[in-house]
Design a protein that fits this description.
Structural class of chain B: mainly alpha
Oligomer: heterodimer
Number of helices of chain B: 11
Helix content of chain A: 55-70%
Structural class of chain A: mainly alpha
Helix content of chain B: 40-55%
Radius of gyration of chain B: 22 Å
Number of strands of chain B: 0
Shape of chain A: globular
Order of helices and strands of chain B: HHHHHHHHHHH
Largest interface: A-B, 76 and 69 residues
Strand content of chain A: under 5%
Distance between the termini of chain B: 88 Å
Radius of gyration of chain A: 20 Å
Shape of chain B: elongated
């Protein structure tokens, strides 16, 4: 019976949605025959990978308000499946796959939320569905402004390119690791990265042009 | 002027590598929530550190979130609110350890979902009224509470001796997240809540279904230790025993 990324199988429960990829079973990372295999504990995994999961979930489009819950879900699945980890991939790769799955579900729920409010919702009020707070003190700092610009520029890329770009440029993953995580071959990963970098540069140039125009108008 | 005016795209991206880092104390806060949600098939291997500063930050955040949940619940005027005599489960008292976030109020999750066509603003509402209603109800007005908060609420309710409330939360999870990420946790909590209510036959049926659906689940051991797998014979089986 095929399992999905969270480990769910069939039975008399509703069939689970199958993600676009299947996670390989995970194992301990030791490959030396003489080495004693020691699977990491949940605590160790949590401590080592919490920041990575948080960043991944945010970069995969979960809004600030939903990140806590999304990260919890990721680690609940990790906790449930850690005993099955059998090392065919890196632990971080496996965890990222779970984070991706959870993030997609959260974004889908968020879209249902928007749809449920009806078509007459003023777009201005869509802000209340996500990062609902008024600009915080952080938001108004230079760093916060840069983050907003980053998210705006990444938002101009399609999902495939955005994901490769963030994994390579922000998370500093190698192309082989990215290919493994996304279930694509390396050439495809290289191609997407190249295209993503070009599009990002163009988006940045357009942003600067708009900024200059706004400044001229403001004077 | 943009702070990164002279940077290339790659340089800008490199400068933003830590931009999505978690805020301070998020790690401890999320960990507390996870532990509060776990059926504890596997107990934690290390105790949570006592961090009074983190607790202070967290209890402030918890008050804000809790208030937002209450406001969202009270403002759902278009929903049919079930009047339950069940006292909502109490949130674990703050201690030196970072506590889990507040739980969704039982009345906010017990209400059946509005039909999709009735969601959204009424055509007769003025735009001002509509905006006020949207602002008051916030993100949760037409959407379920999150999966993890429902499972956590059920777990806490059961631990606090209120398995009936736990089943209500779990039924809401089943309704709103039939194919959710935490289906295993939900079904386990259902078995445990039924056991707590003495509904052993139902617990056994649920446990059997659990075994079929999740044969290698990490929670199988916990199900096996429940009333569903005890030597206790339900009344229905005793009647058949010669």
């Amino acid at each position: 019976m095929v399992r999905d990324v969270t480990g769910h199988e069939g039975g008399d429960f509703p069939p689970m949605m199958r993600p676009a990829f299947e996670l390989p079973p995970v194992a301990n990372a030791l490959s030396e025959p003489s080495a004693v295999a020691v699977a990491p504990s949940f605590d160790e995994v949590y401590e080592a990978h919490f920041d990575f999961v948080w960043r991944s979930v945010r970069r995969l489009g979960v809004d600030e308000a939903g990140t806590d819950d999304a990260v919890q879900e990721v680690f609940l699945v990790v906790h449930r499946r850690l005993a099955e980890f059998c090392g065919r991939s890196e632990l971080r790769t496996w965890i990222y796959g779970i984070a991706r799955y959870v993030a997609i579900r959260h974004r889908r729920t968020a879209r249902r939320r928007v749809a449920a409010l009806g078509e007459n919702v003023d777009p201005m009020h869509l802000e209340q569905l996500g990062d609902a707070a008024a600009p915080s003190a952080y938001d108004q700092t230079e760093r916060g402004e840069a983050l907003k610009v980053l998210e705006e520029l990444l938002g101009e890329l399609d999902d495939d390119k955005r994901e490769v770009l963030t994994l390579v440029e922000l998370e500093e993953m190698s192309i082989p690791e990215v290919a493994d995580v996304l279930g694509i071959n390396r050439n495809t990963a290289y191609g997407r990265l190249r295209a993503a970098r070009q599009e990002f540069e163009k988006a940045l140039a357009r942003h600067r042009a708009r900024e200059r125009t706004d400044e001229r108008i403001a004077r | 002027m943009t702070p990164f005016e002279d940077q290339s795209g790659s340089a800008f991206l490199a400068s933003m590598r830590r931009a999505h880092d978690p805020p301070p104390h998020a790690k401890q806060r999320v960990r507390a929530s996870i532990l509060a949600s776990l059926p504890l098939s596997v107990p934690p291997t290390a105790p949570l550190p006592a961090t009074p500063a983190a607790t202070t930050v967290w209890t402030s955040l918890a008050a804000v979130v809790g208030t937002a949940v209450v406001i969202a619940g009270v403002s759902m005027g278009a929903f049919h609110m079930l009047r339950s005599s069940v006292v909502p489960p109490s949130v674990p008292a703050p201690s030196a350890v970072v506590v889990a976030p507040p739980l969704p109020a039982l009345s906010t999750v017990a209400a059946p979902a509005r039909p999709p066509e009735s969601r959204g603003p009424s055509p007769s509402e003025t735009s001002v009224v509509r905006r006020a209603r949207i602002a008051a109800t916030g993100a949760s007005s037409a959407s379920p509470v999150s999966e993890v908060s429902l499972v956590r609420a059920a777990h806490v309710a059961r631990e606090n001796g209120d398995p009936t409330a736990a089943l209500t939360y779990l039924a809401t999870h089943a309704r709103d997240f039939p194919r959710g990420t935490l289906v295993e946790e939900r079904e386990l909590e259902t078995v445990l809540a039924l056991c707590a209510l003495g509904r052993v036959d139902e617990a056994r049926a649920k446990a059997s279904a659990f075994d079929v659906a999740f044969p290698s689940s990490a929670h199988a051991d916990r199900v096996a230790r429940s009333c569903a797998r005890s030597r206790h014979e339900p009344a229905s089986e005793r009647a058949l025993t010669p």
